[in-house]
């Protein structure tokens, strides 16, 4: 079972049981759907629009425990593109509303990684620059709230912005956020070094040389293989 599946299973079967109000609401929605479809004339598949999230409703349903609500809501959102008789492409979804749902889920469960995985690797990889920018901006905002846990999603969004959108200034903004993060945070050196190599791609060789030289002199890089690699890059940059 995946880590996410274990989290869900644990959240629903451990001491934090699913609130009775949530179970009743889900059963009520199912019954209403069955009743409404039973009296409907020849059925034709029509795409439903993603509704706006309601923080008040989610809090009421949660019964004081937001974690099961966040997990069930995440699964519902992820499955929204599969509707009875239809399979929607992600670009058919209203991404502003998708952003609102992901933000609401993170408010319910700030420690969860799954909403940002969806934003960066699922919704953020649709072949639509405007939608990709929305997802990248969401990941960046959420990274600033918790860099130590969310750096990997910003690093992935940075690569999307750099290689797919070809927006080097925006990629540089994201890279600088990783470089300037608190040194005590568990952000790996390769993520912090993305700014150096991005500046090299942008033709800013002098700035890249200064940053790379400073990194080597700081003693932060301890691995001998990584030190050799960075020294080789520094020599190549100085040649340029």
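^ Assign residues to that structure.
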């Amino acid at each position: 079972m995946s880590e996410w599946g274990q989290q869900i299973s644990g959240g629903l079967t451990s001491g934090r049981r699913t609130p009775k109000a949530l179970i009743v609401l889900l059963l009520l929605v199912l019954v209403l759907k069955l009743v409404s479809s039973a009296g409907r004339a020849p059925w034709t598949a029509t795409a439903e629009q993603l509704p706006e999230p309601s923080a008040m409703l989610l809090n009421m349903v949660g019964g004081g425990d937001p974690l099961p609500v966040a997990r069930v809501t995440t699964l519902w959102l992820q499955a929204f593109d599969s509707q009875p008789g239809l399979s929607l492409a992600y670009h058919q979804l209203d991404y502003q509303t998708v952003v609102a749902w992901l933000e609401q889920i993170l408010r319910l469960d700030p420690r969860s990684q799954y909403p940002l995985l969806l934003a960066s690797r699922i919704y953020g990889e649709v072949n639509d620059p405007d939608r990709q920018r929305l997802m990248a901006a969401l990941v960046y905002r959420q990274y600033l709230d918790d860099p130590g846990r969310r750096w990997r999603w910003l690093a992935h969004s940075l690569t999307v912005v750099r290689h797919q959108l070809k927006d080097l200034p925006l990629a540089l903004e994201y890279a600088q956020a990783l470089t300037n993060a608190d040194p005590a945070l568990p952000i790996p050196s390769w993520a912090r070094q993305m700014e150096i190599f991005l500046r090299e791609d942008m033709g800013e060789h002098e700035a890249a040389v200064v940053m790379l030289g400073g990194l080597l002199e700081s003693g932060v890089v301890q691995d001998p293989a990584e030190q050799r690699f960075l020294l080789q890059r520094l020599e190549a940059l100085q040649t340029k």
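The beta strands are 82-83, 86-87.
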